TrEMBL record:
<protein>
    <submittedName>
        <fullName>DUF2306 domain-containing protein</fullName>
    </submittedName>
</protein>
<dbReference type="InterPro" id="IPR018750">
    <property type="entry name" value="DUF2306_membrane"/>
</dbReference>
<feature type="transmembrane region" description="Helical">
    <location>
        <begin position="120"/>
        <end position="140"/>
    </location>
</feature>
<keyword id="KW-0812">Transmembrane</keyword>
<feature type="transmembrane region" description="Helical">
    <location>
        <begin position="7"/>
        <end position="29"/>
    </location>
</feature>
<keyword id="KW-1133">Transmembrane helix</keyword>
<feature type="transmembrane region" description="Helical">
    <location>
        <begin position="88"/>
        <end position="108"/>
    </location>
</feature>
<feature type="transmembrane region" description="Helical">
    <location>
        <begin position="49"/>
        <end position="76"/>
    </location>
</feature>
<dbReference type="Pfam" id="PF10067">
    <property type="entry name" value="DUF2306"/>
</dbReference>
<feature type="transmembrane region" description="Helical">
    <location>
        <begin position="152"/>
        <end position="171"/>
    </location>
</feature>
<keyword id="KW-0472">Membrane</keyword>
<feature type="transmembrane region" description="Helical">
    <location>
        <begin position="177"/>
        <end position="197"/>
    </location>
</feature>
């Protein structure tokens, strides 16, 4: 039990700082997303900045709600002692994911990197909906462990934007790719990592459980 606290606490700090960054950056420092939009020079569809920005504001707001709601529900405190809070908050998370997916569906055709990035976002949208619905179906059928695992897979995608920007920063600033090239690598790099990381977390958990149970064997 004590082993799990640092990982949760670390995740909480990362989530808190990222939400703060997303809110300050998108609503205060760069509300017109001027830097980001300046890279959308060869779009096939005409981007209407006011509509795109409104959709982006909704997207960011609900992405932050999803990140916060998910974090609260992973706390052992909520699912062990406050079942009702866990359930209500769980539906807040699912509704937020749905809104992020819908707004992402609007923005995907205008994605930086054109059709290639756009395809990545659409695949991600489909997988995120499937993972989140699978988690819901499992808990409605009282399969707690499977629900937990699918929620971890779903929650991982709350880190999509953070990873895209981290990867595109490294590829653009350090490895010399163009911004658009780096962003496209960021989209697929984030998808790959966010599919793999939850499975690594489960393996590490299984290995720890085996080590624990061996300790008590005579
Ligand atoms: C949950 C955490 C997320 C946050 C905080 C977030 C935030 C943002 C922000 C600030 C933008 C504006 C452009 C930028 O600065 O990157 C954006 C764009 C976008 N996001 Fe998200 N997002 C999140 C998750 C997702 C997920 C899971 C998807 C896909 C299912 C997604 C799809 C998109 C798309 C398609 C765009 C437009 C990209 C472009 O125009 O190139 N986002 N997001």
């Amino acid at each position: 039990m004590t082993r799990k606290i640092p990982f949760y606490a670390l995740s909480a700090v990362v989530v808190f700082l990222y939400i703060l960054y997303a809110l300050i950056n998108n609503y205060i420092l760069d509300p017109g997303a001027e830097t980001f939009l300046s890279y959308k020079t060869d779009l096939e569809l005409e981007l209407k900045p006011r509509i795109w920005l409104t959709v982006m504001y909704i997207h960011v707001a609900f992405a932050c709600v999803a990140m916060a709601a998910g974090l609260v529900n992973f706390s052992s405190c909520t699912y062990a002692k406050r079942r009702r809070l866990h359930r209500v908050n769980g539906y807040v998370y699912m509704l937020s994911v749905l809104i992020v997916v819908l707004t992402s569906g609007y923005m995907a055709p205008y994605a930086t990197g054109g059709k290639v990035s756009s395809m990545g976002f659409n695949l991600l949208n489909i997988y995120w909906l499937i993972a989140t619905s699978t988690a819901l179906i499992h808990i409605l059928k009282k399969r707690v462990e499977k629900h937990r695992r699918w929620m971890v897979r779903s929650y991982a995608f709350c880190f999509t934007n953070m990873l895209i920007h981290l990867i595109s920063y490294v590829t653009h600033e350090w490895l010399g790719f163009t911004y658009v090239g780096g962003y496209t690598i960021g989209v697929y790099g984030a998808i790959a990592l966010l599919l793999v990381i939850p499975e690594l977390i489960f393996r590490a958990g299984n290995a720890q459980d085996r080590a624990e149970s061996n300790k008590f064997r005579i």
